[in-house]
Amino acid sequence: MRKLLVITCSFALLACQSSNNAIEMQQATDNDPSSPLTCSKIDIPSQSDQTICRDGYTVGFNYLNRVADWVSYTLTPERISGFVSIESFSSDASLPVSAQVTPADYIGSGYDRGHLAPAASMDFTVASAKQSFLMSNIAPQLAEFNRQGWAELETWERQCTQQVGALKVVTGPLYSKQDNQWMNNKVRIPSAYFKAYLAPQAANTNMAFIIPHQRFDLSEINQFQVTMYQLEQLSNLSLFQPFNTNKNTLLSLCQLTNKAAPDHQAFSCQDKYYCNEMTSCQEAQFYLNSCGIDRLDNDNDGLACESLCF
Predict the structure, then answer these.
(1) Which are the contacts of 107, defined by CB distance < 8 A and separation ≥ 6?
(2) What angle do CA 233, 111, 136 make, to 5 degrees?
């Protein structure tokens, strides 16, 4: 029996992830001057405690879980060409103080600060790159999840965008009733993450995945595929509502059976162990993720040799 059935059963009692039974808290006004944008209704799959609009993505934030219910973004070939700018993590001042998470909250937790809207897909301007490192776009992810399959899936997204012209994405955490683990008693740890894709210029073809929060490889991704309808039922989201798309069939979008190739030049694992031996941020990240040189990430945030990247 496919793992899909196990995953589906484990989430049969999934509670609405926007805090219906959460602490009552008045929705704050997003008065962050760096984000004066108006959110498009197309990019809002559910009402969360607070909706935040950014240059490259939209966030539905959950005050109780202190993690986004969902993040939605649209990739285009022009945007993923890259501005090559990486900023440091920072708290999101547009959230109420009681709901904010700081970068330091993750230190010593055993979890990476995992991007929901990928930093490498949000670097089309300095502002959008900086916004991708706001903690409202960050979720707790195990290192073997974040740096392996999740990173490969983000690379695949960019490659697929080059093929289909544009790719709409919604992603976020999923919780079962048994998910009562909190990182440092502050941030809720999900037992799975989801990805939903739609290609408007490719006959509105869609794909959806529910991926257990554990190590996985992109070559295994097909066993985690679900229909868009199944994901909507388990997540309580309304995905890609304005688009005429088949939500009841497992569809195929681009090639997902093999590992995604690197975005940049090909690297290979050689006798390199220190940041001063790396020639670029991309090479350092390759040695961290593919060669297992953990010393390159001395603060355990998933980024290697930050002096090369900042």
Answers:
(1) 299, 300
(2) 60
**Residue type, position 152, single letter:** E
Digit-by-digit pLDDT tens for the chain (310 residues) are 445 544 554 554 344 444 433 333 333 333 343 444 567 888 899 999 999 999 999 999 999 999 999 999 999 999 887 665 666 899 999 999 999 999 999 999 999 999 999 999 998 988 999 999 999 999 999 999 999 999 999 999 999 999 999 999 999 999 988 888 999 999 999 999 999 999 999 999 999 999 999 999 999 999 999 999 999 999 999 999 889 999 999 998 998 754 443 343 456 788 888 888 887 666 776 788 778 888 887 766 556 776 554 3
In whole angstroms, give the CA distance from residue 52 to residue 37: 9
Burial class (CB in 10 A: 0-12, 13-18, 19+), 166: middle
| Interstrand relation of 182-183 and 205-212 (parallel, antiparallel or unpaired) | unpaired
CA angle, 59 then 119 then 80, to 5°:
105
Count Cα neighbours of 293 within 13 Å in the Cβ-side half-sphere: 21
Instruction: Report yes or no: 77 and 124 within 8 Å, Cβ to Cβ.
Output: no
User: First vs last Cα of the chain: how many Å apart?
Assistant: 46
Task: Report pTM.
Answer: 0.74
- Using DSSP, how many helices (H) and how many strands (E) does the chain show? 7, 11
Burial 223-246 (b: 16+ CB within 10 A, else e): ebbbbbebbbebbebebbeeeebe
Query: Which tokens belong to 271?
Result: 């006798």
Q: From CA 67, how far away is CA 136, in angstroms rounded? A: 7
Q: What tokens does 72 get?
A: 């939605």
**Selection from 33, 73, 95, 24 nearest residue 197 by Cα:** 73
